[in-house]
Fold each of these.
Amino acid sequence: MNPASIQLDAQGRLKHFLTIEGLKRQHLIDILDTAESLTGVAERRVKKLPTLRGKTVANLFFESSTRTRTTFELAAKRLSADVLTVNIATSSTSKGETLLDTVRNIEAMQCDMFVVRHAASGAAEFIARHVRPHIAVLNAGDGRHAHPTQAMLDMLTIRRHKGPAFQDLRVAIVGDILHSRVARSDIHALNVLGCANVRVVAPRTLLPPEVGTLGVQVFHDLDQGLRDVDVVIMLRLQRERMSGALLPSAQEYYQQYGLTEERLAVARPDAIVMHPGPINRGVEMASAVVDGPRSVILEQVTNGIAVRMAVMSITLGNQSSPAEDA
Amino acid sequence: MRIAIRGGRLIDPAHGRDGRHDLYIAEGRVVGIDAPPGGFVPERSIDASGRIVCPGFIDLCARLREPGAEHKATIACETHAAARNGITTLVVPADTDPVIDETAVVELIRRRAEAAGFAHVLTLGALTRGLKGEHLAEMAALKEAGCVGVGNALAPVASTLVLRRALEYAASHGLTVFLTPLDPWLGATGCAHDGQIAARLGLAGIPVAAETAALGRDLALIEETGVRAHIGRLSSARACAMVARAQAEGLPVTADVSAHHLHLCEQDIGRFDANAHVLPPLRTLRDREALRAAVASGTLLAVCSDHQPHEADAKLDPFGLTEPGISGLDTLLGLTLKLVDEGVLPLAEAIARITRGPAGVLGIDAGQLGIGAVADVCVFDPERHRALTARTLASRGHNTPFLGWELRGEVTHTLLAGRVVYAHEGA
Amino acid sequence: MHDIERLIDTLANALRAALAARAASAPALVGVHTGGVWIAERLRERLDLPGPIGTLDISFYRDDFTRVGMNPQVRPSHLPFDLEGRHVILVDDVLHTGRTTRAALNEIFDYGRPASVLLAVLVDRGGRELPIAADAVGAHVDLAPGENIKLTGPDPLKLTIQKRP
C-alpha cells in the first residue's frame, strides 16, 4: 500500500500530514516555500494572519510534550484558528476510553483539524483513517514512526543555511536512531529532497535492524561519521535509556557519541549543528556546541512555527476545497 | 444413521488411498469402502461426484474464547464455524480464563462442546499453574480429565529449571508437551518481525532469536528429559532447520505452522494493518519459503489455523496496541489448497498435513477413513472458489488479512462421527 | 492591444494629482503580487520616488481561502520599510470585485498604521462587490460577460482579454 495514499486527495494534494514517506519532492518544496513566506509574520506589528479564522484546531496529545504542543498551538493561533488543547495522557484513556471513542468525542465538537501526538507508531494514520472526511490530521509524532513537521523544520533550517541543493550535502544523524521518529522522518525527507549522503551514527543497540534499507550509511564511530559533513543532527537520548541494556552509562555515551567542539573539527568548517530538543547538555552535546556559533538549534524552534503554519494552511485549504475550484 | 457417499475422489493419506471410492457409514463409523456391507440400505446418500472426500480436518490450535472471552466468540459459534469449514477436531490451548489448570475447566469445555455437537474439542492442560511459569500444574489430574497434552500456550516459562521439571513431570505421565518457543525478554515488547518493515514503521521488533533462543533451550531439555514434544507455530527458517536437525538426531519432536505464516510475510503489514498483527510475527519472504519447504518435507507435520477470533474493537487501535491473532478457521482449507496450487506439495500430502499429520501428533485414532474408523468426514468441491468477506465468514471473528481474497475449495458436507453437521444448501 | 506605457503615464499623472491633493509627501509604494509589483516599479521611475518597493502576497488574507485552498506558489510578503505614519500607495494591476484590495488593506494594517493609503490600479474593469474605489486609474475597461483581463510580464508587460471557457 502506498504510504502517501491516505494523506493525499484524488488530485495528489496533501490533505493530512502523517509521514514524509511516499510524498513527492514538490510536496516538500511547497511546504518549505510556504513556510519561508511565513517566517516574517513574527516580525510584524500584528503577528497574526486571518487565514484560518473560524476554524478550530484540536491538539490531541496522548503523550505529553511541551515544546511541540506549544509550537503547534502558536502556529494555529498565528493563523487565527481557535485552538483546543487536550492532554489525553492524563485524562480519558486512563479511564479506559478507547482511542477511537476519544477521537469521536472531540470530532463531535466540530473541529476542523486534529494535531495528534501518540506513543504508538501508526496512531496518527489510524485516526486519519477513521475521522470524518473534512477533518485534516497532522502527525505531531507517533511512537517511533514519524514526526514529519519536525523533519520539515529541519529541512527549512538546512535550506536557509545551505541553499536548495540538497544533493550536494552530507548529513550525519547521531544518536538514538532506534527509538527516534525524528530520525526516520529526517531520513525520508533528505532522501526525497535528493540528499544521497545521509549517515547515521550510533552503537548497534540504538540502531533499528536493517537500517541500511532506509537509505543511509551506517557508522558506529563518531569521528568517521562526522568527517566532511555539512549538517549534524543530534538526537535526544531519553533518560531511561542512558543506562541499562542499551548503554552502559551517560558518561560513556558522551565519551563515544557526545558532540564537542573538538570532535566537530572533522566536519566541514561551515557545518551547522541541529537538535530537535530538549537537549541533555553534557550527554548528547557539550554546552559549548549548543551555545556555539555553529548551533542553529533556536532557529529550528522559530522555523518550526512557520513550518507548522504552512502545513496547517496547506492541508486545511485542500481539505475544504474541491480541486476543480482552484 | 446409514450414509452412503458415492462418486467422490477419496483421499485418505493414512491408507494411501487417492481415487474414486464410495464410502459407507453406519453407527458413526466407516463400514465399507467401494462396496457396502451386506444388507446396507442407506438412509441418506450424498452424491460426491466432482468432489473430494477426505477425513475431517484436525486443527492443532484454535482458541474458541470460552470460557473467559465470550464477547469475542463462543464454543458453540466457533465449532459451528469449524463444521462449516470441514474441521472436525479442534485442540484448545490452555490460555482460557480461567486457565485450563483445573479439571473443572476441562469439564466445562467438554460439556459446552458436546452440547453444541459440531466438532470434537480437545483440550491442552496447563504446564504450570495459571501459566505463570512458577508451579507445576496438576498434570496427572488434567490427563485423567481428558487433556490430550500439556502446554503453556504463549506464556513463556522463564525459568529453565521450572521448565525442566515440568517436562520431566509430563514425561512421567506420558503426556505430550506442546511448546511455542518465545524468549520472554527478546520478544517482550515487540509486535512485528525485527526487520525492514519494523525499522520503517517504527514498530518494536521481535527478532528471530526470540524463537531460536527459546527453541534451543527447549530442545536441550527435551533431549535430556526424553519427553515427547510438539513445537507449535514456527515462524522462521532457522527454527525449521533446528527442528529438522533434532528430528534427524532422533528426538521425539514434531512441529506445526499456522496456515497464514505459509502465505504472508512482514510486507503484508502494509501500512499498519492490524489484521496482520500476529504472534509469532510474520517474518521475511525467505522465512516463508523455508516454512513451505519444511511443510513439504514433513519436518512440519501439521498445518493449523492458529484461530484467534476477536471482536472488532480488539483491532481498532494503532498496530502495536491491538491484540495479536488471526481468525483462521475459514481459511484453513483454502490456504492449504493454495499450497498445492503454488506447487509446494501434492494434494494428498497437503490433506495429510491437516488430517493424518495432526492426528499423529495427538496420538489419537482420527484423521483416517479405514474400515472401523470414526466417521469424521469432509466433502469439498475443489473447483468452487469462495470469496472471503465479512458476510461469508462463518467464525464470529472477522479479523483476517485474507478478507477480499478468493480461495479455492468449498466444503459441501461435514460429518462428525457419522452425523451430518454441515451440508451446503443446494449442494 | 493596449499601449501599456501610455496607460502607465495616465496612471502616473492621476497619482501625482491625488498625492498633491492629499499633500502626501514621501509616499511608500506597495505592490500586490505579482502584477501590482511590476506596475509599482514603473511608477517609481515615473514619479522618481526613492526607496524600495514593498510586495504583498495576499494568499493568507483571501476571504475565499477555505474554498480554493492554498496557492502553492505563494511568495513572502516583504515590506522593507516602516509603515507607521507613512503615506502608502497600494498598487494593483486590475481592480475588479475589490476583494483583493480588502485583503491587501488588512495585511498592510498588520504591519503598522499608515498615515493614509491611496489605491492605484492600471485597469478598473468594474464589477465591484465591496465599497472600494481607486484614487488613480490607468484606464476603465468594459468587459463582456465571461471575459477576463490579465496582465502578463514583467518584460514586456502585456494586457490581454481572455474568454473564460
Amino acid sequence: MLNTEDFYHVWRIDQTSSLLREEIKEYCHTNIEMCLECGKCSGGCSNAHIFDITPRKIIQLIKIGEEAKLLKMDALWSCVACQLCVDRCPSSINIPRIMDYLREKAYKQNIPSTRPNVELFHELMLGNIKKFGRVPEALLSVEFNIKSKQYTKDAEMGMKMFFKGKLNPIPARVKDIQMVRRMFRNIPAQREG
Amino acid sequence: MNVAYYPGCSLHGLAKEYGISVEVVCKHLGIELNEIEDWNCCGATAAHSLNHELTISLSARNLAIARDMNMDKVLAPCAGCFSRLKGASYELRNNKVLAAEVSEIIKSEAPVEPEVNNLLQFIMEEQGLDALKGKVTKPLQGLKLAAYYGCLLTRPKEVVQFDDPEQPVSMDLVLQALGAETVNWAHKAECCGGGYAASDTDIVLDLSGQVLDSAKRAGADAIVVACPMCGVNLDTRQEAVSAKKGIKYDLPVIYLTQLMGIAFGYSPAQLGLKRHLNSPFPLLQSKGLA
C-alpha cells in the first residue's frame, strides 16, 4: 500500500517546528508536516461559517506554535466533530483528534470556555456517567437547565417528549460502577459538575 | 454468528422507538441479539471533548465484555456509540502505549475485537439486499424518502471502512429494496448539530435547518435516519426551525428499522411510530401503509 508519508516527502517544504507540533505528533498520531496547505479542511468544515479560526488556519497556528491563541479559540467549543476535514484532507491529517487534544489541554489549564454552557453540559454529563454509568437524559436536562439558569428552556418540548414516553424518570445504573469510576481517575474531582 | 447488541443510552430513552424497532426487525430476520452485559455509556460528545483516555476506556470496557461473551460482532445502532466503539477499537489496535494504559484501567486485555457494525453495514453484510427483498410483504410503494446518513455512519473513512464517506448509497439501496423511492439530495451526509442539542441549540437549529431545507427542496415525503441524534434533532427541533424560518416542513423523521418493520408486515404501533413529535401517520395512511 502507498504510504502517504513517503509519497509526500519531497513536498515537505515547510520545516517550521514548534513544541506544540511535536506534542501533537506524539499524542494525536498525526503529522501536520504533511499539510499541503490546500484548504480542503476549511472548505469541508460544517461550521466554518461560525468558526473564529477555521481548520486551515488552526494547522498554520500549530506550526508556528501560537498555543495561547489556539487554547482560547471559540472553534474548540463549536466544532461538531463531523469528520469532514480529516476525510477531505489529502494527507489524512486528523484534525478532529487535534481539536479534542487542544480542548482537553485548555480544559486542564482552566482556560475559560467561550461557550460556558457547552462546557457545563459536558461536565454534567460526565458527572452522571460517573454516578450511574449511563446517562439519565431527563435528569441531565433538568440539571443543565438549573445550573445554566435557563429554567424554562425546552420545557414545552420536554413535556411533549415525556408524554411520548421518551424521558425515563428513573435513571438506569451500571452494576459494576466501581470499574466505571476507575476510568475517571485522571479527571480532577472539582471539575465533574 | 454471535451478535452482541449495544443499545446505548438513547435507545432506552430519547429514541426508544429506534430500540423497539431494531429488536422487532432483528427477531423477524432470525438474528439473535445478545445485549452486552452491564454495558456502560460510551461517553458520547462529553467524554471525547474533555478526556481522551476516558473516552477510550469507556468503550474498551464494553468491547472487552462483548469479547468475553464470545461474540463475533457488535451491533451499535446509534451512530454516536458506533463511532466511539469503532474508533476506540481502531485506536487500541494502533496505539500500543494507550492500549497498555487502558488495559490497566479496565483490568482486562485491551480489546480490538469483536468487529463493530452500525445498522447499515450490519444489514448489508448479514442480510444483503436480495434476502431483504424476499422478506417484504408490504412494499413501501409511493413513499418518496430522503435517506439521511449524517456524519458518523460513514466517517471517518479510515476507521469506518464502509460505503462512501460523503455520497453513501447503502441506506438508499435498502429503502429501494423495501419498495420505496429515494430522492437525490445535497445533505445526505451533512451534520445535524449532533451533541449540541441542549447545550448550544442555535447550532442545531442552523445545521438541522439546512438538512430540512434540502430534503424539502428535493421533494421528499419524509427523512429516514439510522442515528438517534439525527432522529431526535430533526424531529424535536423541526417546530423551532419552522418558526425561525417561517417554512412549514411537514417532514416526519422515521428510523430505518421502523420502515423495515412496516414492509415486513408489522403494525405502526408495534414499531413505536406513535412516539414521534411530527406524526408519520398521515403520510403512511395516505399510502395505505398504516
